[in-house]
Amino acid sequence: MTDHEKELMLDLLVEKFVYGLSDEDSKKLEGLGHEPAEAESIELTIATLGMVDLPAEDQMPSHLYARLKEAAGEVIDVADAPNAGAEEPAPREIVLSGQPSGSWFGWLGWAAAAAASIALVVSLFVPRGGPLVAGPAVPTPTPEVRPDPARERQEMMRSGEIVVAEWGKGNVDELASVSGDVVWSDAKQAGYMRFRGLPKNDTSKETYQLWIFDETQDPKTPIDGGTFDITSDGEVIVPIDAKLKAKNPSAFAITIEKPGGVVVSKREKIASLAAVKPKEA
User: Fold this and answer.
1) Do 194 and 269 share a structural domain?
2) Most-buried pick from 123, 131, 228, 265 (CB within 10 A)?
């Protein structure tokens, strides 16, 4: 048997006792041939690893103890199992008492075989079942609370320090029926647009974009208030996403632009305009 065939046999034996083999792999293992003592020694190693994370105070089940003792054969010599239900059993001493015969152990050696089995079992177990040693408890993630634009708009309006402007006609005749309002707070640098009658847009061809005219910017280059899409009928409330700090806005405009928006609008398609009424003296 070549070294490659011996390594393949070891891999198949380990997989057999961890997950089980497919019909194809079982035939492959039968073709390679192996002694029962070799298979039992690998099975014993895997069974031992399977008890790594058991609490130290737990007593080994009697049926498992008997199976391990039987499988150990000439490799491990273990004292008699404790009586079931005995309190505080004395520690058991495991002693290596010999080396099984067979070509496979002659090629690899018991210690190397055990180490190889352990390495393979760990590599198989850890990705599928997690670490063998329990880590710290993972806190339960806090459910994400989605913002409610309608509620936040109402809270902003109750704050008092806001400007409100109503949407009116732009330069697109078919959008003359658009209504609603825009609410803005200088203190919070936030606001909301409310629309009724603004049609859904084809996102592959166009998007809506808000522009804020205030005392800090040249009217030719108003502040970009962000792009948005209308995906439903009826009343829609959209948060404002101002790219610069706005101060004392005098007007707001909605234009129709290419997907992604523009830096400076040509204002060829103004869907709606909202002028802020001057404050009464």
Assistant:
1) yes
2) 228
